[in-house]
Amino acid sequence: DAKTTQPNSMESNEEEPVHLPCNHSTISGTDYIHWYRQLPSQGPEYVIHGLTSNVNNRMASLAIAEDRKSSTLILHRATLRDAAVYYCILKETSGSRLTFGEGTQLTVNP
Amino acid sequence: ETGVTQTPRHLVMGMTNKKSLKCEQHLGHNAMYWYKQSAKKPLELMFVYNFKEQTENNSVPSRFSPECPNSSHLFLHLHTLQPEDSALYLCASSQVGGGGYTEAFFGQGTRLTVV
């Protein structure tokens, strides 16, 4: 599995945007970029995914670099409920497995 | 509510006990997974089942025995565990194949303590 690199932790203030970076320099052409997050005492939950183009959904936006070697998850207005560990994961088009790294612990300050 | 239900939520067992973890998904998915999350460590994939058949076993010790009687149910049978097996055990499901994409849905996990 291609590896991703994320900062161990980040902090944000409530109602401000948050940009969570992820490096994946060994990404292959068939790898999708997925983001999951894990709130305290919960299982991980899906946030967003993309291949080449930027993506938006009700939870977040995903900005993908033109060379696909990095991506950024954008939370437009952080809330206290967004405090979680955010995982950036590469997954093959046809593969079923998700391989989790250590993720980024996001702290949101009131 | 994610559509994936795990029971029990908490379990304390002795090293000589036998217990089972249960997972049920109500999403119509064809793949199910067991993950282990130890303190301060990333989630580790343990087993993968596609269409009730085990397709992946990531060198998991034989004291962990999975069972998938149908596409909606997944069990993890536990026997003669060690204290270092104490962890959060997470079940997930997804739809694989068919050309489309669905994300994985996780249960809330079973917090296992081995004493």
Q: What is the topology?
A:
The complex is a heterodimer of chains A (about 110) and B (about 120).
Chain A lengths: L8 E5 L4 E6 L7 E8 L6 E6 L4 E2 L4 E4 L5 E6 L8 E9 L11 E6 L1
Parallel strand pairs in A: 1-9
Antiparallel strand pairs in A: 2-7, 3-4, 3-8, 5-6, 6-7, 8-9
Chain B lengths: L3 E4 L2 E4 L4 E8 L5 E7 L6 E7 L2 E5 L6 E7 L2 E7 L7 E8 L10 E2 L3 E5 L1
Parallel strand pairs in B: 2-11
Antiparallel strand pairs in B: 1-3, 3-8, 4-5, 4-9, 5-6, 7-8, 9-10, 9-11
Descriptive report:
The complex is a heterodimer of chains A (110) and B (115). With 110 residues, chain A is an all-beta fold. Chain A contains no helices and nine strands. Chain A has strands spanning 9-13, 18-23, 31-38, 45-50, 55-56, 61-64, 70-75, 84-92, 104-109. In chain A, a hairpin with a 6-residue loop joins strand 3 and strand 4 (45-50). The N and C termini of chain A lie far apart (38 Å). Chain B is an all-beta fold and 115 residues long. Chain B contains no helices and eleven strands. In chain B, strands 2, 4, 5, 6, 9, 10 and 11 form a seven-stranded mixed sheet that branches. A four-stranded antiparallel sheet of chain B has the order 1-3-8-7, with no helix packed on it. The mean pLDDT of chain B is 92.
Helix percent of chain B reads under 10%
**What's the Cα radius of gyration of chain B?**
14 Å
Low-confidence stretches of chain A: none
Give the % helix of chain A: under 10%
> Main β-sheet of chain A, in a few words?
5 strands, mixed
Query: Topology as H/E string of chain B?
Result: EEEEEEEEEEE
**Got a strand count of chain A?**
9
**In DSSP terms, counting alpha (H) and pi (I) runs of 4 or more, how many helices of chain B?**
0
CA-based shape of chain A: globular
Give the N-to-C terminal Cα separation of chain B: 30 Å
- Low-pLDDT parts of chain B are none
Question: What general form of chain B does the structure show?
Answer: globular
Largest sheet of chain B: 7 strands, mixed
Strand content of chain A: over 45%
